[in-house]
Amino acid sequence: MLFVTSTRWRAPVRLRAILLCVAALPGLSLAADRPLTLAEAGQRTIDQNPRLAVFKWRFGELQARRETAALRPQTALSLEAENVAGSGAQSGFESAELTLALSSVIELGGKATARVAVADARLALAEARRQAQALDLLGEVTRRFITTQALQAKLEVAAEAQALAATSHELVRLRVERGGAPEAEVLRARAEQARAGLRRDAIEAELASEKLALATLWGADAADFDRLRGNLFEFTDPGPFEPLYERVSRSPTIRVFGERRRLRQAELDLARARSRQDIGWSAGVRRFEDSGDTAMTFGISTPLFSRRRSEGEVQAAMAARSMVDYREQADLLELRARLYDAWQGYRQGSAAAVKLRDDVLPALERALEQTREAYQRGRYSYRDWIDAQRDLLDARLTTIDAASNALLNLALMEQLTGTAVANPPPSADE
């Protein structure tokens, strides 16, 4: 799975000096007292999520059913009385005939083996579904982790916007005091400072909600971490699409298809075995009360026309097996389309994020620094100064969105293929 951490922006020295006040703003702790990595979040979820814990009881149920399926046909003990409590010579028990017998069934057609095969197939399907469920949970952990981390990075941008608004207010106030700008610009700067604070408060609230949503995946009722650790710009080359799609055949999702097909085949074999006629047998001892003699009794029985009665069950099992094949084909087509869309989205998003980070942001940072200097000298208007700030802040938010969208697509690729797309060298944090 992916490893992602916070965003670090590169800024000119003088702009960094302006933004040093970010760390002093109330409510923002840049020190990670309790950091959380994606690997830790994934392990907690696998260990504690109730959706996986339920499989323990499911396996117990299926194992018990397997033991039942392996049992031989039950043997019955019967006691039968004839010529009892009649009339005339048959009154009372003097003429009674008592029979004590054992009876059971001889199964033909390998029914016991077929029943055990069905039980084994259900156990294998449950295990494949457990693995697929675990993979889905890890995918959900990764998505929530990336979404939360993107908000964490946006909170840093919001704090920077608040710091820039405070700096703007101070610059405008000094310029107004020197008579270089109307007093209305101070009021506008003050309003912008208030709006920046509101935007930051909104992101803080959304970040708190996403942290809780992430923590609920391992059953926590509150976020037991302060900050996520990773790198939003840890991109890798996914390679061509076709080799990536070939990995799908080894994924837990495809294993579920295979196990479901084997289960339907085992059910079909059981239906065919049941179409074979079983032989019932009985053996016992009969006592004649009027003479005191005893005699052995034997009997066999077999149902008539049972093959015709079982034809419907066999046809239903064949139809169920065929449906699995067609559903697998349809699901594979859908899976291929989703994987291709994620592959394209990751390539485009990662390229855009790198371009924005390496080319667009440095240019806008230099433009902001130059605009600030020109505004202080009276060459640019307040509107120019504000526009330069917004351009930089909007570009940073766009960069975060591009990086997080790319990583979300990468997480989807890993979930669909069941493997890591690539294994980049770990950073010092990781």
UniProtKB/TrEMBL annotation:
Q: Which InterPro entries match?
A: MdtP/NodT-like, OMP_efflux
Record key words, sorted = Signal
**Keyword Signal in annotation:** yes
Indicate the secretion signal residues: 1-31
GO molecular function (one): efflux transmembrane transporter activity
Taxonomically, the superkingdom here is Bacteria
**KW Signal (keyword) present:** yes
Family per similarity comment: Belongs to the outer membrane factor (OMF) (TC 1.B.17) family.
Q: Identify this protein by name.
A: TolC family protein
List the source organism. Parahaliea mediterranea
